[in-house]
Amino acid sequence: MAKAIISLPRAGNWTELLIILKSFVFVTAGVVAMSSMCYFIPAQLLTDEASNVCENIYSSKWYNHMELAKPLIMIVARSHDLVEIKPCGIWELNLKTGLTVVKSMVSYATFLKTVESAT
């Protein structure tokens, strides 16, 4: 039989464990920050542009081109539907979600700093 040996870090190794934990948190925060710049902001811009379609069509001179009237009316009718970008149906990608993630990261980092200064 094979035995699994699990050893707890000794007093000297706790600093190494803390460094590893800090590095993991730092890398995770960096990945989340990069994803917010690469995904949350463009998704919000795309959602804003999709919500402006109705106003832009209404402001155009669509009545001068009667062959386009019926398709444009259909587009205006469809543009009243709310546009949401949900990857894998998990959460909505928008600026509000991104700022909530950043706010949570800052709160967690503040908590870790408080715990570290208390020890």
The geometry reads as rod-shaped
Question: What's the gyration radius in Å?
Answer: 25 Å
Tell me the series of helices and strands, N- to C-terminal: HHHH
> Main β-sheet, in a few words?
none
**Number of distinct helices:** 4
Structural class: mainly alpha
Count of structural domains: 1
Strand content: under 5%
Give the % helix: 55-70%
Write the layout of secondary structure elements.
Layout: H1 14-51, H2 53-59, H3 69-78, H4 95-118
Helix pairs in contact: 1-4, 2-3
Q: Can you describe what's shown?
A:
The protein is mostly helical and 119 residues long. It has one domain. It contains four helices and no strands. One of its GO terms (cellular component) is plasma membrane. It is found in: Cell membrane. InterPro entries: 7tm6_olfct_rcpt. GO terms for molecular function: odorant binding; olfactory receptor activity.
